[in-house]
Structure formats: C-alpha cells, structure tokens
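Support request, please re-run this one:
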Amino acid sequence: MACPSLPSATITSVILIVISLELIVCWGAHTDAEALLKFKSSLEISNDALVDWGSESSPCSENNKANWVGIICHKGHVWGLKLENMGLKGSIDMESLEGIPFLRIISLKNNNFEGSLPDVKRVGALKSLFLSGNQFSGSIPGDSFSNMMSLKKVHLAHNQFEGPIPWSLVELPRLLELRLEGNKFSARIPNFQQKAFKSFNISHNDQLHGPIPHALSHMDPSSFSGIEGLCGPPLNKPCNTANMPSVASIIMVSIALTQALLAIGAGIVILSRRNQSSSCEEVPANGKSPGARALDPGVGAKSPDRASSHGSGRRVAEGAKLSFVREDLEKFDLSDLLKASAEILGSGCFGSSYKAAMTGGPVVVVKRFKQMNNVDKDEFQEHMKRIGRLKHPNLLPLVAYFYKKEEKLLITNFVEKGSLVIQLHGQKAEGQPALDWSARLKIIKGIAKGLRYLYSELPSLITPHGHLKSSNVLLNANYEPLLSDYGLIPVINQEHAQDLMVAYRSPEYNQQGRITKKTDVWSFGLLILEILTGKLVANFLHQGKGGDEEDLASWVKSIPATEWNSQVFDKNMGPTKSSEGEMMKLLRIALACCESDFEKRLDLREVVEKIEELKEKDGDEDFYSSYASESDVRSSRGLSDELNFTM
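Re-run finished. Output below.
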C-alpha cells in the first residue's frame, strides 16, 4: 500500500524543526568550545597536554564521552574541568569559564599557578573547587565565596595564602569539605556553623590562634596539628578565658580603624598594625578610596594585646555610654560589654555581628553598622527610641545602642537556634530533623503577624521592614520566628541602601526607581517560596541584572499546578499527603505576593488574612480541581533547565 503523501508545508515544518534542534545542540557545544579555547589562551602550557583542544570535534559527545583531554561531560555538556599535574602556568580566566553554563567542577591541582586567588565567584553555581598544590599567595578577600550557595568542596591546601580565612566560607550552607592545610593563614578561625563536614583540615597554618569554634570540636585533632596558638576541643589544650578576646578588643579597634580610614593621612600608623583585607571598602569623606588594605572587623581579625584593648575600652567608657531603649530588660554598662568575651558571628557589607557573653550577665549580640554615618545624632536617637518601643512576640527587640558619628552599634538578645537560613539550608547534625510542614507554616504565620504589627506601629515608613530575608528571621527555642534588622531604611545611607537592602531589589525599584507599601509583601512572597521549596533565592539570581529576584517565582509558575507536589515542594518537609491542599493554597498566596506589578500585588492585610486561614491539614474541598488550571500559573518566561541540573 502506498504511503499517503504529506502536504509540502508540513514537510517543510518538520525539516525546520529538525534543523532548529540541531542548531540548538550545536550552538550549546559551540559555546562551550569557544569558552574553553578562550580559557586555554590565558594559560602557559609547556607541553602538548592540551593539543587536542581546538580540534573539529566538540568537547563532549552526546553519549557523555569527552573528546578533549581534561573535560568531564554530563548529558552532552561540559560539567567539569580536570587539568591536574600538567605544569600549567599563567592566569586563570574565570570570565571565560563563566560562559560554560553547566560547569560545576574546577580542578587545577598540582600545577604552577601563582598570584592571588582567581575570582571564583564568577562561576556562582560551582560545586567543587580544587586548587591545592599550586603557588597561589596573598590574602583572600573576605567575600571571595559570597553567594556560592551550591559549593560543597573547597581545596586550597599547600599554597602560600596568608591573612585571615575568608568569612564568606562560613556562609556556605552546603560546604562538606574544606582543605586549607599548609598555607600561611593567620588570625582566628572563623565561627563555622556547618555541622556535617566530611573533611576539614587547617593544619600547619602556624599563625592561627585562639579557641576552636564549637562546631569544629568533633573534628579529628590532626586537622589542627602544627598550630601552637589554638586551644579548646578537640585539642587537649584548654583555653585560658583570661586571654579570650573581648568586645573591646574587637569593636574598639574596628572603630579606631574606621575613623583612621576616614582621615587617610592620620590613620597610617594604625593601618600599619593591621594587614587584613576588607571585602567591602568604605569610601572616605574626601571621596578617595583607601590606599591601604582596610580592616574588615569580621571573621579573622587579630586581637590586640589584653592591656591595650582594655585600656581603649576604659577610655571610651569614660566619655560615652550605652543608650537603652527598653526598661523591661536587664541593663549593663558599656564597660561590662567591652570586657565581655566575644565571638564573631558574621561579617559583611551591611554590618558585623558579635556574640558577647558578660560574666554573670546576659548574652547579647552586638551588630556594628558601617553605613549610618549620614544621619545626625538627634534623628538617630529618636528613631532608635521608636524602634525600642515596639513589642511583639515575633520581633527581635532592640536592647540598646551606641552612637558615634562614624560608628553605630545595635545590641539585641542572643537567639540560640540562629537564623532561618541555617535551619533551611545548613547541614544538619546527625539526628537533627528538618523543618516539617507544621513548623514551616508556624514560622510563616509568625512572620506575617510580625509584619502586620510593624505596619500598624510604623505607618509613616513606606517599608516598615525593608530587609526581609531568611537570614533576618531568627528562631527561638519553640521555633517561633523573630524578625530582625527591621525599620532601618530611615537611618541607612541612601547611597548604600540601594546595594544592601532587599527592598531596593524589588521590581518596582528596578523599573521605576521607587519602593512602595507593597515592597515588603514582595519580599515576603519570595521568603514563603524559599520556605516551601527549600531553594535558596540566591541560587536563582544573576548578579547585576535588575529584577531577577523574581526568578524563583517564575520557576514555580513555569511548573503545572498538578506537578507542584512532586516538583516544587521541599521533600525535606516529610510526609505531607494530608496537607497538600493547604500547601498549594500557601504557594498561590506567595505567587500573588511576587506579582511584579505592585498595583496587582496583594496588600499586606490581605496576605495576613489569607495566611491566618490556613490549617495544618486539608479540609474536604478538592484543592486539585480548584488549582489545576495551568493558564493562570504559567509564566511567560521560565528558568533554563540549568537551575535544576543536578548530578
């Protein structure tokens, strides 16, 4: 029987589709090849190790076979770069590697690379970085690993790195391996909170000193061998609390150095005492950038000797005092605070945080702000009093503040369980359960209540919170959320607010240069999506492109509602069959909060009312039938498959 003939238009369409698919595949391979050849051109190659690079074949074949030496392939894409023991020199062109979208592994171990650490965060989705056994040197900027939230393995051993261990390593929730042995790192070990390290080694960095952080106390003692200045478990060397750094030794030196940077010439003597690089250099009043490397008062700062630090603390205490904004909390003197033993919790562009434990007194958190020097004293004090009057179970109360023109310290109570971002994304200790649906709903309801209270008590502020994100939600012993860093937009330097505050990343600011009463709602929607999906918002961001914070919402919208349970909701919530309807309701509320047109976005009152109606378990309504329409949940733009590309 003769085959029926097809219309010529149909045949043409089929041919075009086939050609288009071939072009797409070839274009992806061509892009990888171009990027790799550009990377090769930056290298000094003393042999024929990479002679097959540039051949007519693409780096990867469709069956995952690597056609070029040193390439790891997965699903036809370049997944890894493994160029070890090849005697390579030259520069490592991270800009070219940024053009390989599926690159997850870089291993350049045991070569002859020199100079400073490459700008590795340009490849933000990297999972493994192996640079051990080279000749890299110099200090590593504190923010070198910022926002690399997928990074699991960092090997920088047996180089010549010096200065403090970069604080941004502390912020990596998935970090499993950290190898820094055989370098020249100095100062204190950062306060690592990761509890699931499979490999950790900082041995033979003989300038490190101070107590070993509690989260590392279970590590093998050999991880700290060859370092006389360390103390505490797992070493058989107790720490002498008399030699523990005080708040004075950290904060007052930070203040002094900040003032020195503002008067460059006068600060030369002080700056010469410090050799630490800053991740966020401040611009002095004369408009010139500091010529010397500024002290980042965060992780790794060296403490001055005990006598000098306490002397400076006493001098400051004589002429200044803490200003308390609450009458119902235990008071203490500035001198008590300055003498308290201090532990650095974190440091960044927005501020540095210290845990301070006073003898026989409370444990507090001191947060140092570097971008509030434009506000005058009366205005600042009045605003702090206003914040101090706020009382709500879901707000972290401000206890006191310290005012200097160039330096502001805000003091709050210490919250033991830490931030929501650690609970959601941090490595869990053995036996520690993940947050289930019930706990997450409780947290979201508490956040909603806290926001509603802020909007009722601070009606004159356009955005009463302004910096709502998972790291600014703390959890108490009962997993009740406590909002922090709220109400600060009026006292933050506006030239810095646009770079630091979440509100200034909203669609309305990116599109119209303004924030609105619904800006906090947009931030809340993203936070709800993060809680429900278990995905970090930062993993969906493309730095430097305005408005891309919507991408997490777009990703959810790109998935049919009938597949939300299997593809969207975080599996770490455990069994949720009886709650799927309520979870879908909440997801729809979050998407309505993330509407890019703020005129169409829900207002906070509506959001809170809808959230308060949610229950832990479903009712009798057929939620699947009511939410199964794809037309109103699909976005006109979705994320590429790369965002879900896992191995």
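The chain has three domains: 13-241, 247-413, 421-644. Confidence is low (pLDDT under 50) at residues 1-29, 255-318, 541-550, 620-647.
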